[in-house]
Amino acid sequence: MSSIVLCSLGNNNTNNNDTNNNNEEQDDGLPTALYRCRAPIASLDCMEEFTSGNEHTGAPTKEQLLQGYAQHTPVSAPNSALAPRQASITPGLRYRNLGKSGLRVSNVGLGTWVTFGGSGSPNSEQAEEVINLAYDSGINLFDLSEAYSGPRAEAELGRILQRQGWKRNSYIVTTKIYWNTKSDERGLSRKHVIESVKASLARLQLSYIDVVIIHKADPMCPMEEVVRAINHVISQGWAMYWGTARWTAAEVMEAYTNCRQFNCVTPICEQTEYHMFCRDKTELYMPELYNKIGVGLMTWSPLTMGLVSGKLEEGGVSLFSRSSIKNKYSSFSWTEDETQAANKESYSWIKERMQPEETRRQHEKLRDIAQLAEKLGCTVSQLAIAWCLKNESVQCLLLGAASVDQLYESIQSLQLVPKLNASTMSELERILDNKPARPPMVSTLALR
Question: What's the whole-model pTM score?
Answer without folding.
Answer: 0.74
